[in-house]
Write a structure and sequence with these properties.
Distance between the termini: 18 Å
Strand content: under 5%
Order of helices and strands: HH
Helix content: 25-40%
Number of domains: 1
Structural class: mainly alpha
Largest sheet: none
Shape: elongated
Number of helices: 2
């Protein structure tokens, strides 16, 4: 593959995980949100 994607943005995580509203860093995310992001990265 030539010029494949190297990064992606994930937005609106606070809609799926309301407890993550106004979170500013990855470390502040809930464990459920972190698990969702890790699954999306695969």
């Amino acid at each position: 593959m030539l010029n494949g994607a190297t990064q992606a943005a994930l937005t609106k995580i606070d809609v799926m995980f309301p407890e993550c509203k106004e979170v500013k860093s990855y470390e502040e995310l809930s464990k459920e949100a972190e698990a969702f992001i890790e699954k999306a990265e695969k």
